[in-house]
Amino acid sequence: MSVQQPRIGVVGTGSIGRAHLNAYRRAGVDPVAVADVDAAAIEAVAAEFGATAYTDIAAMLADADLDAISVCTPPSTHQVLAVQALEAKVAVLCEKPMARTVDECALMVEAAHVNRTLLTVGFCHRFQPEIEAMKAAIADGRIGTALTFRNRFSGPLDGVESSWFSRPAISGGGVLMDTCVHSIDLIRYLFGEIDQVRALTATTATSRGPALEVEDSAVLSLQSTDGVLGVIEASWRTAPGEAVVTVSGTHGRLHLDYATMRLTEVDVDGNESVVEVTGEDRFTRQARHFLSCVAGTAQPRVTPTDGARAIAVLAEATASAGPHG
Fold it and tell me: Which residues are in the Gfo/Idh/MocA-like oxidoreductase N-terminal domain (predicted)?
């Protein structure tokens, strides 16, 4: 393998697949292979990126001499595709959610272990520069003892009733799997392991769309093993959208608004200041980190255990909620 130019493939060329393709390109590596079940779509993407097109991952793994792949397909395929690659000794960056179930995650973890091959999960918010700055400020005691965490990722996903996102056999769940899996990882990244979780979920027929087979809105309450209390809110049906992370402590508060990418700190007297943060976008930074891991010059920031643990926490949350609350 050439450390300077590893051979990368991307499986799945929808919106998230294109995000990975563009991120690799920005990181200085042009993927050499792309795969998708849509033959017409894959030819166009392959031409755009100068890659070889495949409609079958087995053929891609056999022919393309790959060092690593991104798996950017719907969740129902993650376990099978990732295990195929790992058994071929090809490193895997699997998009979130890692898989639909705890058992599927376990099969992926086992394949990575048995084949001694890199497996990581696309928790891209760990690579958001403002989130890294927030974590550093917490560790430095800038807000005193952290006590509460609030995260809301919401916004209208119009037409979701017609997409695979709302089909539980493919998605594994609704907004919990789509956005709350990121939120679970965020609180674990900032504060460590989750000790307790409870959820309320709902799906409601409104002017924005019909009720779904999966939850379109959810609220979770959590507690870390260190005692930090968390609230996570998510919805596909509320407008306008909101994407915020707030951490409050005994001597201050940190707040990130993704709409403006503005991280602010409020001190114990209520004085607000902007925390200056610079850095590339999270997908590019995630791609650079993955490439470094493939080259053996870095250890993965997100382990298979992190991916599996997020699904385990969501399974517990889903069980506590019952059928849509």
Answer: 7-123
Distance between CA atoms of 100 and 173, rounded to whole angstroms? Answer: 8
Rounded Cα gap, residues 71 and 272, in angstroms: 41
Radius of gyration of the chain (CA): 20
- Secondary structure (DSSP) of 8-37: EEEE--SHHHHHHHHHHHHTT---SEEE-S
The 10s digit of each residue's pLDDT in 176-194 is: 999 999 999 999 999 999 9
Hey, what amino acid is at 147? Answer: L
Domains defined for the chain, CATH in brackets = 8-125+283-303 (3.40.50.720), 126-276+311-321 (3.30.360.10)
Give 128-159 pLDDT, tens digit per residue: 999 999 999 999 999 999 999 999 999 999 99
